[in-house]
Amino acid sequence: MFPAIPDLWRTMTVSRHPLVPALAALALAAGALVAAAPADAAPPAAAGASTASDVFVAPSGDDDASGDARHPVRTLQRAQSLVRQRDAHLSGDLTVHLASGTYRQSAPLTLDARDSGSNGHKVVWQGTGSTVISGGRQVTGWHQVPGRPGLWSAKAPHDLTDTRQLYVDGVRADRAAGEVPVTLTRTDTGYTASSDTLARWPDIAGAEFVYTSGEALWNVQRDGLGQWTQPRCDIASASGTTVTMVQPCWDNSNKRVEFPDIPGRTVSMVGPGSLTNGGHATYIENARELLDTPGEWYLDRAARTVYYMPRKGEDLHHADVEAPVLEKLVDGRGTTAAPVHDIAFRGMQFSYATWLTPSSPEGFSEIQAGYTISGATGYATEGLCGFVEGGACPFGAWTKEPGNVAVSHGRNIEFSGDAFVHLGAAGLELGDGTQDAQVRGNVFTDISGNGVEIGGVGDALPTDDADVTRGVQVTDNHLYALPREFTGGVPIVNGYTQHDLISHNQIDHVGYSGISMGWGGWPDKIGAPATPNDSHDNTVSDNLITDYMQGLDDGGGIYTQGLTGTSMADGEKVTGNVIHSQFGLGKSVYTDNGCTYETVSGNVLYGASYSNVASRHTDYRDDLGNNDPTLVSGNWWEQGDADSDNKGLVTQGNHIIASPADAPADVVAAAGLEPAYRGLLDERFGAVSVPAAPTRVGTSTGAGGTLLVTFNPVWADGGSPVTGYQVQAVDAAGHVAATTTVPAADFSASALVTLTGLTDGVPYRVTVTALNSHGSSAPSLPSAALAPIAGSVLPAAPTGVKLRAQATAGTVAWTPPTAVGDSHVIGYRIVLTDAAGTSRTVEVAGRDALVTQPSAKGMFRVVGGLTPGTAYTVSVAAVTGSGTGPAATGKGTTPAA
Questions:
Q1: Closest to 449 (Cα-Cα) out of 429, 422, 426
Q2: Residue 178 CB: number of other CB atoms within 10 A?
Q3: 8 A C-beta contact, residue 540 and residue 577
Q4: Alpha helices in 203-351, H assignment, sequence order
Q5: Where are the beta strands (DSSP E) in 197-241?
Q6: Cα 825 to the center of its chain, rounded Å
């Protein structure tokens, strides 16, 4: 016996069965659609039985139809119009039932107060879990380009005039990119090039220079506007050797005003006044001449032609190739006087939207966390209130990255059981005036910039309660493999808000920080107080954050800056989080400039490069010389700081852990997605493909005929875990001189690969590819050229060796040596000796061992298995490619048990 049509529909929707779209009409005719999310997740309640006021929509519907179950309409805009006719006197929720399939939007679904629920009931836009709201256009009619093996082209769809992304079977393609083919010297308007190569590219206008930053490390080029940034500016034109950059992006990235009496200190107090490294561009992107690697694409806007080099296994005759056209999919435009309210989006996938501002003269002049400086005089005035004449208020009010799905001045808005995937800006923006919103049980991945943005920083002290952002709950979401384009993006960015709860999310494999809270604390760099704001009573709790800061540096698992409240009672609470496996230099919990009244308690923190909880900052709200009031208590960590009250910075009752197993099992188990939502971890979108390419490849000399190699790993694995990395050295003639493959787990432990069999005195450049079950990524950009030497000069000794001991474990801390000989630090050797003369040796490796020395940051490692009540001598020696240097010593005693 066949099941009833609604039951059959329910079964096939949950399983994402390929026949779901074909049964849509039958299911609609039989009754209400049933909401579905991952089978073992607990999304919001299903829509249930339909009511007479409900509206039904299907991709095969007809906008001239009535919109009932038997006669669905086709577009979201027609459904919206029917909702407006029906929701004035709701006696229950009004549900817009969206059948499975793709809804290609010609314009955003723009909502205002007229689209709100009423009488305490919601308007629920209910998808099936296979309902896709798309701003993309299919690109079809592919054919091979004559004379260019491996290159295909197709005519652009009629309304595709520009885009920054292309997707093949749900896999993000790579915008054509490569090394800058000339040497550039910065000028007031751009560059002087070493040859006219760029001028001979017919489509040079619109090509984009990308400036990747990061901490100082070996011979890695360090560009950008601070270790946490990756700005971008387009080329306006090239004539002969003159390269002119677009304005105002160029000025905003190179003329940021500085204090006349504080050399080198920008008035923004965030990063340098101009692009570092002489304006060196890390690479160039978006030109047809750069198409040389499978997976790359280019849109010739003048010829209205899309070019693509298929990856292995891709068949463009049958592939679904999507080019995003819209910049907004949903745009909720509430106002102070007329908020949009009581609306829910459930069971949707929001996909294929772009963001074109970075391709405009504005470019992407980044300052932090996706915020940019914009406008013709942005470099001189934007966000500089109180410090320059005409400075816009409040201080720090820079330009926020927009969301492809956005709501401002929304009340009781809900996004549950949705997926924000294949997007070109931020995923979801809940702007100023958002109150009592829920973001629960969603997936955020394959997003160019930030994941979720809450509130803003443009109105630090709103005078109207309707403009306050508060009561936003972001819970039980999985955010991973992002950002994909603007590497300084953050999965969750929370501005000036009140009573927000960010809890039980899993954030993993991300390019920079995991969660960013607050704003406006930078004035403490010049001895001034943080920008007053209305934030208070925000909580960040029970999140699992792992494999973060994979691309950039100077961030944290949870990063906070500025005033978080008015007292310790209502300041920010960071509790119960488990944060580990940080790659870039930073902190597990980062209390940055002006971070005041934060409590960091009961967290499990390990595997950080530099610090678990830091940093100390002076409280400049008065002249007492105190530190910003902060409580760091009851954490399980490796940092090992002793209990103290350092002028308001209170550290007490923390526990040193020698391994993750030392942390309380209940705290670890409670962090991240709650059990009912853990099915989200199995959700994947698009075909399995090769990983993204590694970045920031650096080399150092080892023993004779040897190069040491480090690089930033991959955080977008193509849907299959990275199994290893292949490292290859090439000489100046292009001959491969050495190749080796290292398992991903080995690189994770050491951040180091050794290439042998090279010739001393011969310079080599090194590239790295990432491997997974599907194949090999595109190669990284090559390292700077370096010749091996037979090193003999050893490093100096570290300094400041200490043992911060608890009963059975101790943190060994030290400062790296300033002189490293003719190589670089790649590790340390710790020798621990008790009073009886019994010694043991601990070898220290990892990315922090490599990066803390050139950046002059401290190091620490935990040694377990100590005996209570015992005096120990500890020695630490630096290890480089030339050998092990002299040791420095310190002493410590474990307390009695």
A1: 426
A2: 16
A3: yes
A4: 249-254, 276-279
A5: 208-210, 232-239
A6: 29
- The sign of the dihedral angle between the CA atoms of 147, 148, 150, 153 is negative
Sequence-distant (6+) residues with CB within 8 A of 400 are 370, 371, 429, 453, 456, 457, 458
CB 348 within 8 A of CB 333: no
- 360-389 burial code (b ≥16 CB/10 A, e <16): ebbbbbbbbbbbbbbeeebbbbbbbbebee
Residues 830-862: tens digit of each pLDDT: 999 999 999 999 999 999 999 999 998 999 999
The tokens describing 226, both together, are: 């601070």
- Using the Cα atoms of residue 636, residue 640, residue 644 and residue 646 in order, give the sign of their dihedral: negative
682 burial level (CB within 10 Å; 0-12, 13-18, 19+):
exposed
Mind spelling out the 3-state secondary structure of 327-383?
A: CCCEEEECCCCCCEEEEEEEEEEEECECCCHHHCCCCECEEECCEECCCCCHHHHCC
pLDDT score, position 432: 97
- Tell the residue number behind the tokens 């970075």, with chain if given: 358
159 DSSP 8-state letter: T
Q: Please state the separation of Cα 659 from the chain's center in Å.
A: 27
Predicted local distance difference test score (pLDDT) of residue 25: 37
**Dihedral (CA of 814, 815, 818, 821) sign:** positive
Tokens of 460: 């630090």
Residues of the chain with pLDDT under 50: 1-47
pLDDT at 87: 64
> Please, is 546 exposed, middle or buried when counting C-beta atoms within 10 Å of its C-beta (0-12, 13-18, 19+)?
buried
The C-alpha atoms of residue 93 and residue 319 are separated, in whole angstroms, by 40
Q: Which uninterrupted H or E stretch holds 848? A: helix 847-851
Quote the pLDDT of residue 49.
Answer: 60
Tokens of 637: 């960590």
User: Residue 495 in contact with residue 526, Cβ under 8 Å?
Assistant: no
**Given the structure tokens 């470099």, which residue do they identify?**
379
> Looking at residue 88, what is its pLDDT?
64
**Exposed/middle/buried for residue 745 (C-beta within 10 Å: 0-12, 13-18, 19+):** exposed
* Pairwise CA distance, residues 636 & 608, whole Å: 13
pLDDT given for residue 390 in this prediction: 95
Given CA atoms 181, 187, 188, 189 in this order, what sign does their dihedral have? Answer: negative
Rounded distance between C-alpha atoms, residue 227 and residue 214, angstroms: 4
540 closest CA partner among 489, 615, 595, 594: 595
- Alpha-carbon distances of 229 from 222, 276, 491, 577, 870, rounded to whole Å: 11, 11, 15, 26, 47
Give CA 546 to chain center in angstroms. 12
pLDDT of res. 23: 35
Asked if residue 724 lies in contact with residue 716, where contact means CB atoms within 8 angstroms, the answer is no
Residues 869/896, Cβ–Cβ less than 8 Å? yes
Alpha helices in 168-280 (DSSP H): 249-254, 276-279
Residues 6+ apart with CB under 8 A from 868: 807, 808, 894, 895, 896, 897
Residue labelled with tokens 């092990």: 884
Query: With contact defined as beta carbons under 8 Å apart, do 494 and 502 qualify?
Result: yes
Helices (H), 491-554: none
CA angle 691, 696, 699 (to 5 degrees): 120
In the beta sheet, which residues pair with residue 841?
Answer: 831
Distance CA 237, CA 248 (A): 14
CA-wise closest residue to 193 among 256, 281, 298, 254: 281
